[in-house]
Description:
It is a single chain. By secondary structure, the chain is an alpha/beta fold. Among the domains are: 3-55 and 114-192 and 298-369, FAD/NAD(P)-binding domain; 197-293, Alpha-Beta Plaits. 30% of the residues lie in helices and 26% in strands. An eight-stranded mixed sheet has the order 5-4-13-14-15-12-16-18, with helices on both faces. The chain has a five-stranded parallel sheet with strand order 7-2-1-11-17, covered by helices on one side. It has a three-stranded antiparallel sheet with strand order 8-9-10, with no helix packed on it. Strand 1, helix 1 (13-22) and strand 2 (26-32) form a beta-alpha-beta unit. Helix 1 (13-22) runs parallel beside helix 4 and helix 1 packs parallel to helix 8 (326-341). It starts with a strand and ends in a 5-residue tail after the last helix. It binds flavin-adenine dinucleotide. Residues 9-15, 32-35, 46-47, 49, 52-55, 136-137, 172-176, 202, 289, 291, 313-315, 321, 324-328, 330 line the site of flavin-adenine dinucleotide.
Amino acid sequence: MGNGRAVVIGASLAGLLAARALHESFEEVVVLDRDTLPQQPEPRRGVPQSSHVHGLLTRGSQEMERLFDGFGAELAGLGAPTFDVQDDMRWWLGGRPLAKGVSGMTALAASRPLLEFVIRRRVQGLANVVVRPEHTVDDLLCTAQGDRVVGVTATAAGQRVSVDDADLVVDASGRGSRSRHMLTALGFPQVEEERIEVPTVYVTRRYRREPHHLDGRAGASVNAYPGNVHGGFVLAQENDTWIVSISDRFGGVPPTDDDGMLAFAETLDSPDVATIMRTAEPIGDPVKMRYPASTRLRYDRIDQFPAGYLVTGDAMCSFNPIYGQGMTVAALEAGILRRLLKDGTTDLASRFFAAAAAVIDVPWAAVAANDLRLPKAVGDRSMLDQRRGAYLERLRRAATEDPVLATAFLRVTHLMDPPSALFAPEIAGRVPA
Ligand SMILES: Cc1cc2nc3c(=O)[nH]c(=O)nc-3n(C[C@H](O)[C@H](O)[C@H](O)COP(=O)(O)OP(=O)(O)OC[C@H]3O[C@@H](n4cnc5c(N)ncnc54)[C@H](O)[C@@H]3O)c2cc1C
C-alpha cells in the first residue's frame, strides 16, 4: 500500500465518496465532520440542503454503483423508487414538456438523507476508515518549509486536537470551504473564482404519495427560462412520499403558507406541482433555502500548490442545484482519485485537478449555457457560443415533439453522453433549421 494516513474534512457525500476511493491506497482513512451524524436518514445542520430535492443523475448512480457494489439494489430495497427518466417524468423546458418516450435510462429517487445514510454506512463498514463526528477542522498543519500539508487541527468537545502524520488531506467541506484562504495565508497564490449568479430561493415540503397521483408518474421538473423564472420540482421518494420544491429568482421569495404556496405553484407552466399541493396530504412544515451563485474555484490553474492536499466536491465547484449535478460530479471525482492513486501520490494534486477540471468543464458549461440565457443572470457571457446556443434552443423546442431528440437531450443532461452527441448528424438532421 505504501501510504499511511489520509484525512478527509467533511463526512457528507463528497467526503464519504473520497474516503471510499482512498481506503484502497492508504492504511488508515480518518474522516472528520463538525456535525453530530444521525443514526437514521435525517437532515442535519451541516448540510442545510439535505431537506431539499436531490435528484441523482443516471451517470451518478452508475458511478456510485462502481464505488459500492449493489448500491442501487440497496436503495431500492429501502423503498427508493426507480423509474425511466423520460417515460416516468415530465420535464418542462421553456414552457412545454419534453416529448414522451422510453429513454432506457434509470433514475433512482432517494432523499438526500437516505443517500448519505446508505453511503456512510458502507464507508463505516470499511475496516480502515474511521468517521469522527463533532470534529470541526480549524486549520492545516504543514511542514516547516510550508510546502506540504501533514494534517489538520480541529476542535472536539471544546478541546483542540490534531490529526497529524498524514500523507494526504482532502478538503470536502462543501461550499463554505476555507481552503483558498488557508492556502493564501500559507503564501500560495490566490485561487481564481468563476461565478454564475442566479440568486434563487427554494421552498420545499414533503407530501404523502398515493398511487393515483400524477397518473403513477414519478415526478415533474419545471425549469426557469426567460419567459418564467418561477421553477418547480416534484419527485417520488422512499416511504411513499413526494418531495415538492418551488423556487423564485432575482430577489423573489416563494411563500411558505399553504394558500401562498399553491398560488405560486399555479404560476408554473406545468400543473403537476399544484396538483400535488392541492390533493396530497402535507408532511411537516415547508423549509426555505437560499442559493446565491454557482461557484467554481480554479485549483487547476494555480502553479503552486502544497503537496499532500486536495479539494473535492462542492468545495471545488458548486453547481446551480436545479441541474442536479453536484452528487454526480463528487462521485466522478472519487472515481478519478481512485484511478490516479493506482499510479502513486507523486504530483497527485496537479494530476487530480487537471482530470477533475476536464470532468467539471461539461456540467459547468451546461449551467452557463442555460443560466446566462436569463437576462438578469450575472456571469461571463463571453464564454457562450451564440451559434451553438441558437441551435440548442431549436433542438430543445423540437424535443417537445420528437422523442428521439428528447432522449438525446436527457442523455446529455444526465452526463451519459458528451454535449457533442447533440451535434451528431442523426440528431442535427431532426432539428429544424
Ligand atoms: C438546494 C440544493 C439542492 C441540491 N440538489 C441537488 C440535486 O438534485 N442533485 C445533486 O446531485 N446535487 C444537488 N445539490 C448539491 C449537493 O447537495 C452537493 O453537491 C453534495 O451534497 C456534495 O456536497 P459536498 O459533500 O461537497 O458538501 P456538503 O454536502 O455541503 O457537505 C460538507 C460537509 O462538510 C462538513 N464541514 C464543513 N466545514 C467543516 C469543518 N470546518 N470541519 C469539519 N467538517 C466540516 C459539513 O458538516 C458537511 O458534512 C443541491 C444543493 C443545494 C444547495
